[in-house]
Amino acid sequence: MNKRQFIKTFAAANLISPVFGRDFENILSKFEQQTPEQMAQNEDFWAEIRCAFLIKPDYINLENGYYSFAPQETLEAFIGHVREVNFQGSYYMRTRQFDDKADIRKKLAVLAGCSHEELIITRNTTESLDSVIAGYDWKVGDEAVMAMQDYGAMLDMFKLQARRYGIVNKIISIPNHPKSDEEIVELYEKAITPKTRLLMVCHIVNITGHILPIKKICEMAHAKGVAVMVDGAHAFAHLDYKISDLGCDYYGSSLHKWLSVPLGAGILYVKKDRIAKLWQLFGDMGYKDDDIRKLNHTGTHPVHTDLAIANAIDFHQKIGIQRKEARLRFLQEYWTKKVRDLPNIVLNTSADSQRACGIANVGIKTIKPADLAKTLLEKYKIWTVAIDYANVQGCRITPNLYTSTAELDTFVAALKELSR
Ligand SMILES: Cc1ncc(COP(=O)(O)O)c(C=O)c1O
Question: N or C: which terminal CB in the chain sees fewer CB atoms within 10 Å?
Fold first, then answer.
């Protein structure tokens, strides 16, 4: 089957929408008088966007936080890159690969709001942030600050530095329902001592969806001479911001989460004046010490994934980050508002619109998180993930752009029944 026949077949089966093709402008033109907030509530528009995805009918997928599978047009472009790289073989790898990747890095830097000289493409957040943690020139007694709600892989990497170099890790706990930004900033501030060298903080806490006041934390930490590394695994292409506006020193994210790149792509941002002091994990002496590319020598890798980043950005930009953020927040608030005050329900996510966007976490007092996730899947055909640590007991709920309010109604009905 050639590409034309393939598209025709799928379109005939109504699996591919006008969005997976040429009519997006047309669809958008019908709605473009509306603000992102008005559009967020317009199910007709999002029904069109839903058609851009091939959705598995077996369950309602409310677990996009791990991996937001790609829309069909990105997937098709990705498969095209796989074919092309395979067709060209080592010729591609020795010639065009470098220019193509350089172009994509520049395109990503524009999206991220930083200089491309401060950004590299990695495989994921883990690689990005672990490269920073392990690239530090740690001395015995140095301190690092982090939260128990941070991601396990990074917490483990700090534990390894403690074993290897004798650093001291100060671990705070972030409340699920803070009264103000200042309450959060103060928690981090209190953990800082004259020995603190690095503070790690999540832009969005993955288990609760809590958006943290990164800029204020950076200002506080910098005033005390402490560098800040932000775990932006869930914020990139989810919230509307520029990395350069946050004021952080290091930033890592995964592009297979909210940008919907096929699996295995991430970014690492290192502020220009911090690059020279960071040791590379993978040996590369070909670049100057202050060239971020020295951190990027991970060997031969699936370059077709990197090529698909450009296609994912194109899809993302057709929708626009303001519309995307507004829709994701609307979806979260749509279901949380319906269950927040019910007896037995525990919302582990703030009701304040500025403190959460698409991600939220809900528990039922009488049901263990693992049992709740199992029942949701087996009885109600709803796919979620159970969280049971760091003062968070519940299921993490992560809808995506293709999620409909009708699907969320099913979820709300299930919660109501189970909490009775
Ligand atoms: C907050 C946070 N940081 C880091 C990661 C790691 O992402 P990856 O596995 O793509 O490296 C995740 C994954 O879910 C996460 O939620």
Answer: N
Distance 233 CA to ligand 1 centre (A): 5
Question: 66 C-alpha vs ligand 1 centroid, how far in Å?
Answer: 8
Relative to the CA of 207, which ligand 1 atom is closest? 16
Which stretches of 197-242 are DSSP H helices?
214-223
Q: What is the torsional sign of CA 67, 69, 75, 77?
A: negative
Token output for 142: 């140095």
- Give the number of the atom of ligand 1 that is nearest the alpha carbon of residue 129: 4
| Res. 3: pLDDT tops 50 | no
CA atoms within 13 A on the CB side of 213: 19
Listed in order, strand segments (DSSP E) in 35-106 are: 60-61
- The region of weakest confidence among 31-35, 156-160, 373-377 is 31-35
Closest CA to 21 of 95, 81, 77, 86: 77
Q: Token pair 């994210």 is at which residue?
A: 253
More confident residue, 193 or 15: 193
- pLDDT band per the 50, 70, 90 thresholds, residue 342: very high
Residue nearest to atom 16 of ligand 1 (CA): 206
Residue of 124, 214, 255 best suited for mutating to test ligand 1, as the one with most atoms within 8 Å of CB: 124
The percent of residues in the chain predicted with pLDDT above 70, rounded, is 95
Q: What value does the mean pLDDT take over residues 29-38?
A: 88
Integer Cα distance of 263 and 274 in angstroms: 29
The residue with greater pLDDT, 2 or 316, is 316
Whether pLDDT at 235 is above 60: yes
Q: Half-sphere exposure of 292 toward its Cβ, with a 13 Å CA cutoff?
A: 22
Cα distance between residue 108 and residue 113, in whole Å: 8
Q: Which two tokens stand for residue 155?
A: 């917490």
- pLDDT digits over 305-334, tens only? 999 999 999 999 999 999 999 999 999 999
Distance from C-alpha of 150 to C-alpha of 378, rounded to nearest angstrom = 30
Dig out the tokens for 399 from the structure.
Answer: 């809808």
- Other beta carbons less than 10 A from residue 7's beta carbon: 16
Atom of ligand 1 minimally distant from the CA of 256: 10
**Ligand 1 center–CA 151 separation, angstroms:** 6
